From TrEMBL:
This is Secondary thiamine-phosphate synthase enzyme YjbQ. PANTHER family: UNCHARACTERIZED PROTEIN YJBQ-RELATED, UPF0047 PROTEIN C4A8.02C. Belongs to the UPF0047 family. PROSITE patterns: UPF0047 (PS01314). NCBIfam families: TIGR00149_YjbQ.
Amino acid sequence: MHSELIEIRTGSEESVVDLTNAIERFLSESDAGDGLLNVFVPHATAGIAIIETGAGSDSDLLARLRELLPADDRWHHRHGSAGHGRDHVLPAFVPPSTTVPVLGGRPALGTWQSICLVDTNVDNPTRSVRLSLLPG
């Protein structure tokens, strides 16, 4: 198994960050053939999604999450910025990991699919993402 921890700067706004290029670099440097790639974010307030980016889906996702998980005082978990408790519920809807097949050293994604970090926590501007390749 080959594994690497990468740092992603998300800043102070909710964000969807496309990790696909970083993942392709990781696979290239790993001399990957076929196998499984696990992408995991070791944070209680972020998740990993496979979605289309750049055509509005990323902003649509954040808008729906704001509707579903409003940043207000309804949450029992209270610390940090207002409504931060919702960030701790996010991983129940956008899980903290995904596994993708790797074929010929490349992630076997569909034409419009990207692997993305979803981060609604404005209190934590830097995230870690663990990439782990299990050779086939």
